[in-house]
Amino acid sequence: MEGMHWALLLAMLEVSRPSGIEFRHVHSPSARKHLPEAMGGGVALLDYNNDGLLDVFLVNSGQLGVPRTEPRFWNRLYQQNRDGSFTDVTRQAGLAGSPAAGYGMGVATADYDGDGFTDLYVTNFGANVLYRNTGKGGFVDATTKAGVAAGGWSASAGFFDFDNDGRPDLFVTRYMDWTLATSQACGSAPKVYCPPATFPAVANVLYRNLGDGVFQDVSTRSGIAAAKGRALGVAFADADDDGHTDIFVANDGMEQFFFHNRGDGTFTERAIEAGAALSGDGQPVSGMGVDFRDYDNDGRPDVVVTTLSRQRYALFRNEGGGVFGYHSLLSNLGALSSIHSGWGVAFADFDNDGWKDLLAAQGHVMDNVQQLDPSLRSQEPPLLLFNRKGRFEESSLGPVVPGRGLAIGDIDNDGALDAVMSVLGGAPVVYRNRPGPNNWLQLKLKSLGARVTVNGQRQEAGTAGSYLSAHDGRLHFGLGTATAAEIEVRWPSGRTSSMRTDQLNRVLTIEEP
Amino acid sequence: MLATLVTVVLAAQQTLPPEVMKHVSAAADAQKAGRHDEAIREYARVTALMPDLAAGHVGLGGTYMRKGDFAGAIAPLRRALELNAELPGAHQMLGFSLLAAGYAAQAIPHLEKVKAHDALGIALFLAGQPVDSIVHLKTALDQRPNDPELLYYLGRASGMISKQSFDALQGQYPAAARTHQLNGELNATQRKIPEAEAAYREALRIRPDLPGAHLQLGELYAAAGQWVKAEAEYRAESKLRPGDAEALFRLGNAMLEQGKATEALVELKRADELSPNMPETLFALGKAEYLAGNPDAAEKYWTGLLALENQTPLAAQTQFSLSTLYRKRGQTDKAAAALAEYRRLRGGK
């Protein structure tokens, strides 16, 4: 208990300005209020060169209809140096320009080809791009061979292993059937971005990894394409503990999707039956970002969905048996979020007290919302909520910006989780966290979807979640004042491992026996 | 109106010379056929041949009205009433014509004479007499409860009275607590939140027991998502006015928003006692009971609400809440039925 108080005082995210990250997101907003211009772009924390230091990849958007050849439109990869500074390695890594790609949105990460190096999948309005990490400091465009260009308007994407074959499969959310030709603005004076229902809903895409660098589109066969939505965020977890990873999709302005994995290569969309489609009062919410982790340490993954202002962020507590309960009110998340508009979101234990806190990037989607409602803001500080045994308390954090993507990871390997938030039309914000007196443990596992329990806390291996973004793949566990860790792993193969260690405050690599 | 006109004309026909009678018949035929200009010419000949025949002028005025030329109808109708001041149809027609042509004040005595409450109410409002106007509009609405014109003018008249009262308040008592409260309301309507808050605070400084001001401050904070502050204001209001069900309902709701279900129940039950069976209170009570872990009590409140109203958006929310409750209990059939009803009320998926 004493440790927790110390943690409250000491553990604090601070804005840092690491040398070398000169990125500025370019979205080229137009008077015609093209919707994609309000939505980008994502951020990933990954160790692309396996030097033990997290690097930062930032997705740029560009200008609709214009090839991204100009350097100011490029996505950027910043390699972390030993001294904590960063070097822009975009050009030498083969990531400069994206002439074939469209307007940039998000990023997903995984070692899809099993060569030990993390690859990148970048989503766009237009064709998506899979960058295979060569392991020699560079990437090559492997989209055509892999068959994962998707097309249309893709938003978030994530790798997960839905068929437990050990190969990362790929889920791509698609927002809506929108084109420059069908684009329209709404309102008269001022003109505003149209609500999502103005444009037709579309299906998401599921690619099965066949090995040898090739994917197969199984959207229809799996049942994923049967549910058309307006999807922005995606996160994965085994909700009902049946050994098969399920999918939660944040939809904008309609029912959310919960795709239950039937274990035979097919999914059933059953959010409404599971009690996770709508708010507690039966209202649709504007789902943006999503995370799918156990926030109350009951061993079951829960869902948080960020929404537009006056809707309350939706917290669906997993009550077992495939049923969720709407817990925005009881957790106090509703009261703390009701006026905010959220995007990237993550449950992460920032003070290492053993309870996952909540961080969300914020800012209303309408850049001129203040003219319509002076109590709302297109630029907001992120929301940092500390988790006090399942009930949230607010903490202050800056700066006031139009936040969008959010990725979590321990950038400086000091045992305190850091974060990077992407900013619409601006420079990203890097948050450095000071370690407090509490203990911690980070686990490195190769298998996506491996279920890990440490001293009763549960997490599943993966990098997906949030909005347009990808987290560090290491699993971080705050341990409070515990002096030892009981670790249990259930691998996707069904095998289990267990161990105990009193060597805490370190990164531990666990491999399937 | 037309019947009156025809009666007058027919009554007159019995003593008319054949030449005049010919034009009266021609006018009537043209009018029936919708040839208004021709009818006007025929009636003009009638009035030229018999300038003292009031019915002729009534016919001419009525034809102008049928043509939609209300300004044109005024002169012949006036002339008719000069000749015979006791023609009720002519008063009604002249009143309508004057009103339609924008001479509301001049229309009033004619409409009063025939007790045409609908037009009289409108004329009184347009003539700047909203208090008298409301009496006649409400009488007319008793006959035609959903008439959009009447509803519109009743709203306008009420608003004008409200504005006149507020103008007087602000003009004569600029420093009064009620004036600051009013300023708060006006600022809140325009979403000038800091100004509204300051005005309410000033009102309460002047008069700490001012009814409604804490409630309004609570609404301001609730709209801004500041639930702790909203709760404090609602609590202050309900302390000042313990018999105010709305303050207690809002206090309970503010607590619910913060997840304080058990505490909210106390206030919501008090609100329900003071003002029983308010659907919003019943819904909130069900929600509080459900969150407090009392699904049976929640079900009772929600089904009670549905007995009062079952076709509204609140009924849809209630059906959804019931479907969640039944699903959690494992009553899948009831859950599916409630969900289907929710979907029906919401108009599909």
The number of strands of chain B is 0
DSSP strand content of chain B: under 5%
Mean pLDDT of chain B comes to 92
Distance between the termini of chain B: 52 Å
- Average pLDDT confidence of chain A is 94
Shape call of chain B: elongated
Main sheet record of chain A:
8 strands, antiparallel
Give the proportion of residues in helices of chain B: over 70%
The CATH H-level superfamily of the domain at 1-114 in chain B is: Tetratricopeptide repeat domain
What's the SSE pattern of chain B? HHHHHHHHHHHHHHHHHHHH
CATH class of the domain at 1-114 in chain B: Mainly Alpha
Entry summary:
The complex is a heterodimer of chains A (513) and B (349). By secondary structure, chain A is mainly beta. With 349 residues, chain B is mostly helical.
What do these coordinates show?
- The complex is a heterodimer of chains A (513) and B (349).
- Chain A is mainly beta and 513 residues long.
- In chain A, 6% of the residues lie in helices and 39% in strands.
- Chain A contains six helices and 40 strands.
- In chain A, the strands form ten sheets. In chain A, strands 6, 7, 8, 9, 10, 11, 15 and 16 form an eight-stranded antiparallel sheet that branches. In chain A, strands 18, 19, 20, 21 and 22 form a five-stranded antiparallel sheet that branches. A four-stranded antiparallel sheet of chain A has the order 1-33-32-31, with no helix packed on it.
- Chain A is globular and about 65 Å long.
- Mean pLDDT of chain A is 94; it is low at 1-11.
- With 349 residues, chain B is mainly α.
- Among the domains of chain B are: 1-114, Tetratricopeptide repeat domain (Serine Threonine Protein Phosphatase 5, Tetratricopeptide repeat, Alpha Horseshoe), CATH 1.25.40.10; 294-349, Serine Threonine Protein Phosphatase 5, Tetratricopeptide repeat (Alpha Horseshoe).
- Chain B has helices spanning 2-13, 18-32, 36-49, 54-67, 70-83, 88-100, 104-113, 117-126, 130-143, 148-172, 177-189, 193-206, 213-223, 227-240, 245-257, 261-274, 279-291, 295-308, 313-329, 332-346.
- In chain B, helix 1 (2-13) packs antiparallel against helix 4 and helix 16 runs antiparallel to helix 17 (279-291).
- Chain B is elongated, with a radius of gyration of 31 Å.
- Classes of the chains: A mainly beta (513), B mainly alpha (349).
- The A-B interface holds A 255, 272-273, 275, 278, 280-283, 309-310, 319, 323, 325-326, 329-332, 334-335, 337-340, 373-375, 391 and B 191-193, 223-228, 256-259, 261, 287, 291, 316-317, 319-321, 324, 327-328, 339, 342, 346, 349.
